[in-house]
Design goal:
By secondary structure, the chain is of the alpha/beta class. It has one domain. It has 5 helices and 12 strands. Strand 3, helix 2 and strand 4 form a beta-alpha-beta unit.
Amino acid sequence: MEYNLRIPPEKRYLFTEPLDILIAGTREETIIQVENLFRDYLKSNLNVNFCIVGDIVAKDFFSNSFLKIFVKICIIDEKTQRNQINIGLEDYFEEIIEFQNPVGTINKDCWELFRNVIASGKKTLIKVTEGEEDLLILPLILEIPISDQEIYFAFYGQPPITDSNFIIPEGIVIVNADKNIQEKVSKLIAIMEKF
């Protein structure tokens, strides 16, 4: 991508809806539901990788001994609701990369970064040292290769939304990185402003 991207203010509502499956509930409830879902899913003997975007979701996954072993890529900004948070994940990862992504944007350099991280096969922690990680879920999903042998799921936290046409409860969003989701994400990327 040659340009940085940002959400046009009048289209912001399109980016608040869950990209895929929303598991609604408290943090304690949702992480147990995710664990149960994947315990069943993994009986199919598929090679599964998890990509985590967001500090609170990362904290919940890494406090769960079953789920954390599948985490391949984790993107955090060490902030939650603008407050500093340190969840101490460094020891788990083979590589730690610092990256800048200004608030409300997608840095044009993230596409190549994600491509290289996925190709490396290393468990990688990407720390956004300036800005925020929220929108990076979109280019990450588009860079994930679609394969029969290896399946990627991305996870991020869904804040409660009460100002849209319908109410969206808080929870965890599970994104199965397949062709349908990539098409949906491509449409969102297409309406973003280039700068």
